[in-house]
């Protein structure tokens, strides 16, 4: 894809958007999972608090004891990460699980309501950070009320380890889903841009002359663009038609004054003023060549459906030139493919090839050859002669206005220029070359878009 490609821009934008969205979704899911795990552990610690409250007993002398109903083995394993602690603010009494070993949890001395549960994150043994659930319970005894502050705690690292394990499993899944979404986005972009490709093909058909307007079933979002393009094409056709009409009127209007000037030049020559007559005649000749060329260009058809079979046109032209005084003495080698057609009007193709055959007929020593072949969607029509050829440095100037390399050979010097105008108007080109064979010669090759054969224009 090219740097300024709309498809590339959409793919890059979609990739960036998906990457941001998937990364954000990943962190959000990890955060949600961590909250869920934390809530789960808080509920587990609160469950241990209830078990701890149910296990508290008082001896006859008022000491606090604990039966063995807390069955989690981690409470008996030193520094296991799961702890409990009971303390009495009034007396300073503290009772701890064996897992705390010889350390204590520094519970804050904030007042607690009876049954109220507080959460804390505090430092614990061996540098551990503990998540703590704390509750105060008041026991009514015959000797009076006793308020005990009970706490269960768990190492925060356990919560973080669960979150990290979840993240390790999550990110590959996030990447896989992102790649699948990117592939789906690529597909959606291709489907979405397909109508633009249809418009491109329609415009190409208009440019090559196979259609006059954009035609097809386009999405409603693109119909305003299609309608504007068709309106522009219609206005352009109308403008070209008026311009051609004005050019034709101007060219035809000049032909009569030029004829009068030529007549005046002839009379001056008869009166013994040849220098003035020759000067006027030369100017008249130059103006006539300009007029003839403009008339030829005006005859080019406006953009429209065109398809002309090549073989019938070449056959008609070859038959004509073979009957001329110059052509009947030449050998004609015609090689064509009857199935090939070009995107050009029949009259334009006849005008173009007629000029090339006329040029070849003038300069050929003994033969003229015509060949036709299709290469990569382009029809190449080559007209070659075995004449003296053209100086290599003069080849680029052959299509100049009124260029004549030999002033003694009859002609206006417009044939090749007109042929090039027609080729370019049909979306093609015209190239020249000298033969590299020992016999010498010159060839002109017309390159025109290949088109389906149309019997109506054959």
Number of strands: 14
How many domains is the backbone divided into? 3
Q: Tell me the fraction of residues in β-strands, as a range.
A: 15-25%
Structural class: alpha+beta
Apparent shape: rod-shaped
Average pLDDT value? 82
Secondary-structure element series: HEEEEEEEHHHEHEEHEEHEE
What do you see in this structure?
- By secondary structure, the chain is α+β, with helices and mostly antiparallel strands.
- The protein has three domains: 12-161, 2-Layer Sandwich (Beta-Lactamase); 225-298; 308-457, Heat Shock Protein 90, CATH 3.30.565.
- It contains seven helices and 14 strands.
- The chain has helices at residues 6-55, 156-208, 223-270, 274-298, 310-321, 346-363, 415-425; strands spanning 56-58, 64-66, 82-88, 93-96, 117-123, 129-141, 144-155, 308-309, 331-335, 341-342, 367-375, 378-385, 429-434, 442-451.
- Helix 1 runs antiparallel to helix 2 (156-208) and helix 3 (223-270) packs antiparallel against helix 4.
Layout of helices and strands:
Layout: H1 6-55, E1 56-58, E2 64-66, E3 82-88, E4 93-96, E5 117-123, E6 129-141, E7 144-155, H2 156-208, H3 223-270, H4 274-298, E8 308-309, H5 310-321, E9 331-335, E10 341-342, H6 346-363, E11 367-375, E12 378-385, H7 415-425, E13 429-434, E14 442-451
Parallel strand pairs: 9-11
Antiparallel strand pairs: 1-2, 3-4, 3-7, 5-6, 6-7, 8-10, 10-14, 11-12, 12-14, 13-14
Helix pairs in contact: 1-2, 3-4, 5-6, 6-7
Sum this structure up briefly:
The protein contains 7 helices and 14 strands. It has 458 residues and is of the alpha+beta class.
């Amino acid at each position: 894809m090219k740097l300024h490609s709309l498809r590339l821009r959409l793919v890059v934008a979609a990739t960036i958007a998906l990457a941001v969205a998937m990364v954000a979704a990943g962190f959000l899911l990890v955060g949600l999972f961590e909250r869920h795990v934390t809530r789960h552990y808080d509920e587990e610690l609160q469950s241990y608090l209830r078990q701890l409250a149910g296990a508290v007993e008082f001896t006859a002398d008022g000491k606090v004891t604990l039966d063995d109903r807390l069955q989690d083995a981690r409470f008996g394993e030193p520094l296991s990460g799961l702890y409990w602690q009971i303390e009495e603010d009034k007396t300073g009494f503290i009772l701890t699980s064996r897992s705390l070993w010889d350390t204590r949890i520094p519970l804050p001395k904030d007042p607690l309501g009876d049954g109220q549960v507080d959460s804390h994150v505090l430092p614990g043994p061996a540098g551990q950070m503990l998540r703590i659930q704390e509750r105060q319970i008041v026991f009514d005894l015959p000797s009076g009320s006793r308020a005990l502050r009970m706490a269960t705690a768990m190492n925060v690292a356990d919560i973080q380890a669960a979150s990290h394990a979840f993240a390790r499993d999550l990110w590959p899944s996030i990447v896989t889903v992102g790649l699948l979404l990117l592939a789906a986005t690529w597909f959606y972009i291709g489907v979405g841009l397909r109508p633009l490709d249809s418009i491109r093909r329609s415009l190409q058909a208009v440019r090559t002359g196979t259609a006059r307007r954009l035609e097809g079933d386009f999405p409603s979002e693109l119909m305003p663009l299609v309608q504007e393009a068709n309106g522009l094409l219609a206005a352009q056709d109308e403008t070209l038609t008026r311009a051609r009409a004005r050019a034709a009127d101007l060219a035809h209007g000049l032909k009569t004054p030029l004829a009068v000037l030529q007549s005046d030049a002839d009379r001056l020559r008869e009166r013994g003023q040849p220098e003035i007559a020759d000067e006027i005649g030369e100017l008249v000749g130059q103006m006539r060549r300009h007029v003839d060329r403009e008339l030829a260009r005006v005859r080019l058809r406006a953009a429209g459906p065109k398809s002309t079979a090549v073989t019938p046109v070449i056959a008609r032209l070859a038959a004509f030139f073979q009957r001329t005084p110059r052509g009947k003495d030449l050998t004609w080698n015609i090689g064509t493919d009857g199935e090939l057609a070009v995107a050009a009007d029949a009259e334009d193709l006849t005008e173009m090839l007629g000029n090339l055959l006329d040029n070849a007929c003038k300069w050929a020593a003994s033969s003229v050859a015509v060949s036709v072949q299709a290469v990569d969607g382009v029809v190449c029509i080559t007209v070659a002669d075995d004449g003296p050829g053209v100086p290599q440095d003069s080849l680029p100037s052959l299509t100049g206005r009124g260029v004549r390399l030999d002033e003694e050979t009859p002609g206006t010097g417009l044939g090749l220029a007109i042929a090039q105008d027609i080729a370019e108007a049909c979306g093609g080109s015209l190239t020249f070359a000298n033969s590299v064979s020992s016999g010498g010669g010159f060839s002109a090759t017309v390159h025109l878009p290949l088109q389906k054969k149309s019997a109506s224009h054959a």
